[in-house]
């Protein structure tokens, strides 16, 4: 009877081990790169989504204000009521660009729960590359009451206005007791470039106040 043949156990050579390690390292680097790209893409998507939500919110706030702009005289800091129903100019409201101030209606006060009416004076300005909305509790405010300032959108470099008069667009408005037919608002933003919104207004003219009477 022949003796059994002995089989010698065969291990891995050094080259095979190094090759396996190299393949594993390559796969690990590829997987890590894919994972990193997924995380980066997710962050970019979230950033774009948040920026879009901010833009939509900004336009919603502005639309609500400008579309309900009304012809009404108002007082600033307790001074006499001006004949200008709409103010906009460079440095107005300490804006680093143009600023604007006007009265709007439709400020909802359900069942008159708050000590105010439905008419409010608002303004917009640029401060530190941020679009800010300013709200006064009453159209005829006093110097002792500070307005509420709300940052609306960051990354806004400039804001400018033009109004439609009787014939054409103009960059100033000094017609007493009269509202323009429309207003054009231009925002210069870091992310979206130049954004333009046009709002149709009443074009209403108020009667001149009676001498000795109240406006």
Description:
It comes from Enterovibrio norvegicus FF-454. Its main location: membrane. The chain crosses the membrane at residues 12-31. InterPro entries: N_methyl_site, Pilin-like, T2SS_protein-GspJ, T2SS_protein_J. The protein contains one helix and nine strands. It has a domain at 64-200: GSPII I/J protein-like (Pili subunits, Roll), CATH 3.10.610. The chain is elongated, with a radius of gyration of 32 Å. It has one helix at 14-67, and strands at residues 86-90, 98-104, 120-127, 130-136, 148-154, 156-164, 169-170, 182-189, 193-200. It is α+β, with helices and mostly antiparallel strands.
What is the CATH class of one domain? Alpha Beta
- Strand % is 25-35%
Number of helices: 1
Strand order of the largest sheet: 1-2-3-4-5
* Structural class based on helices, strands and sheet pairing: alpha+beta
Name the CATH superfamily classification of one domain: GSPII I/J protein-like
Radius of gyration: 32 Å
Low-confidence stretches: none
Instruction: List SSEs in N-to-C order.
Output: HEEEEEEEEE
Tell me, what's the shape? elongated
- The tally of strands reads 9
- What's the architecture of one domain in CATH terms? Roll
**Mean pLDDT, rounded to whole units?**
84
Organism: Enterovibrio norvegicus FF-454
Protein name: Type II secretion system protein J
Main location: membrane
InterPro entries: N_methyl_site, Pilin-like, T2SS_protein-GspJ, T2SS_protein_J
């Amino acid at each position: 009877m022949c003796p059994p043949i002995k089989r010698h156990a065969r291990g891995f050579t050094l080259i095979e081990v190094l090759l396996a390690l190299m393949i594993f390292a390559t796969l690990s680097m590829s997987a890590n790169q894919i994972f990193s790209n997924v995380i980066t893409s997710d962050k970019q998507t979230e950033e774009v989504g948040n920026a879009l939500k901010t833009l939509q919110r900004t336009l919603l706030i502005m639309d609500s204000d400008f579309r309900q702009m009304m012809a009404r005289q108002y007082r600033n800091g307790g001074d006499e009521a001006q004949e200008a129903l709409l103010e906009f100019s460079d440095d107005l409201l300490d804006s680093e660009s143009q600023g604007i101030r006007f009265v709007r209606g439709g400020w909802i006060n359900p069942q008159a729960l708050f000590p105010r009416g439905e008419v409010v004076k608002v303004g917009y300005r640029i401060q530190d590359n941020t679009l800010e909305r300013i709200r006064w509790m009453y159209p005829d405010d006093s110097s002792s009451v500070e307005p509420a300032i709300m940052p609306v959108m960051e990354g806004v470099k400039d804001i400018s206005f033009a109004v439609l008069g009787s014939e054409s667009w103009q960059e100033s408005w000094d017609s007493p007791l009269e509202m323009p037919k429309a207003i054009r608002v231009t925002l210069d933003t870091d992310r979206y470039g130049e954004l333009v919104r046009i709002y149709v207004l009443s074009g209403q003219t108020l009667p001149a106040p009676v001498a000795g009477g109240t406006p």
